[in-house]
Each structure stands twice: as structure tokens, then as C-alpha cells.
Amino acid sequence: MMKYNIRIFKVIFELMKGNFMELLKNKILTDGIVNDEEVLKVDNFLNHQIDVTLLNEIGKEFKRRFSDVKVDKILTVESSGIAIAVIAAQYFDNVPVVFAKKQESRNLDPEIYKSKVYSFTKNKEYEIMVSKRYISKGEKVLIMDDFLAKGGAALGMIDVIEQAGAELVGVGIVIEKSYQDGSAILEEKGVRVESLARIESLKDKTIRFK
User: Where is the Phosphoribosyltransferase domain (predicted)?
Assistant: First the structure.
């Protein structure tokens, strides 16, 4: 109990200083596991076990960064982006969250948008699907996800938004692997990318921030 309370006090202290970026970086350094030069595991707090206090602050930070744009819906992809998007949506006036599905099922609408996505982590291609009922022409859509590496998931979601005739207002990423070209690819397309933590290198199993 004492150890838990000390951790909470540290979180509160950092937030009182307005130092969210350092808090996130410290969390990655403390709890992140580097498998190799390409793979960083953060499943202790972000995409398997969820640190709700941290995700709340992530949501607030995304709102601060995108406070200048109107957001009608937040789009993410299952499953890692769902918790991030849902908690963040509270700070965007509780706008609906839509998550792209990776598998067809009987209860999925027959009218859907589809896009092919290459997963760098899993080294395979798959389709994402969104019902046409949930993204409409003219809606302003903000994309959120846990990681940005090669940009495959983001490009797939952008394709879905374009198929719907909706407007992309930006891409919010918790952790960007800046040593890969995903961010550059998106920015070349004129996409606004806001990454909360940017990793420059994982060489020698050491996390280095940009």
C-alpha cells in the first residue's frame, strides 16, 4: 500500500508542475520493455493492463493540443487504441468513438468501408472495417492510436475517412517511433500529427527520446 501511495504522490506532483511530458517519458522508461531495436512493450500501462490515471492525463493533453479544431468523432482501431480514445473523448465533449474492426462478424453491417493495413509489429497485412453508419460525409474526425511506426494503421484509417467523405482534422499518437518513417509519410500528405512521446532509438535496448 505504501509503495502504491508513493507512486500516486509522484504522479500528482508531476501534474501539479504541469510536466505531463516528463511524466509520460518516465513511465515509458520505468515500465517499458525493449525486446529489440524495433519493438517496445508498454503493455504494463498502455495496451494490455491500463493505467487509468495516466490515460486520463493523455486525454487532457490531446484535448490541449487539438483545442483549435472541431471534432465530431474520434476514430481508432481495435484493440489497443480503444481505451485511449474512449477516455480522451470525455475531454472532447463526449464525442462518439468509432473503432475500426479487424475481423468480419455476423453482426457487422453489410455496408462497410474497408482498407488494407500492414502491421509492422505482426509483419502481416489485414483489413480494417467500419460501418458506413458511423462515419458520415462532412464529419470532422480525429484519429487516435497508441503507436506510430510505419504509419500503416493511420493510413488505413485515413483511407476510411476519405471514402466516407469526412474530414480528417489530425492524428493523435501516444508513442511515436521517430526512427521509422510513419510520421514523415503522414506529414508529406499534409496530415497534422501530434505525438506525446517521440522515441529516437531503441539501440542497445536503451530508450532514447527525441
Answer: 60-178
- As a CATH number, domain 54-209 is 3.40.50.2020
Question: How far is residue 42 CA from its own chain's centroid?
Answer: 13
What would the grid cell of residue 69 be? 479544431
Nearest to 168 by CA among 153, 158, 155: 158
Show binding-site residues: 40, 47, 149-153, 177
Q: Where are the domains of the chain?
A: 54-209
Provide the annotated binding site for xanthine: 40, 47, 177
Residue ranges for the known binding site for 5-phospho-alpha-D-ribose 1-diphosphate are: 149-153
Task: Give the model's pLDDT for residue 62.
Answer: 97
Tell me, what's the pLDDT at 7?
52
Q: Which residues of the chain have pLDDT under 50?
A: 1-4, 6, 9, 13-14, 16-17
Q: Is 9 helix (H, G, I), strand (E, B) or coil?
A: helix
* Spatial distance between the Cα atoms of 52 and 146, rounded to a whole number of angstroms: 14
Q: How far is CA 26 from CA 30, 94, 154, 175, in A?
A: 6, 29, 26, 13
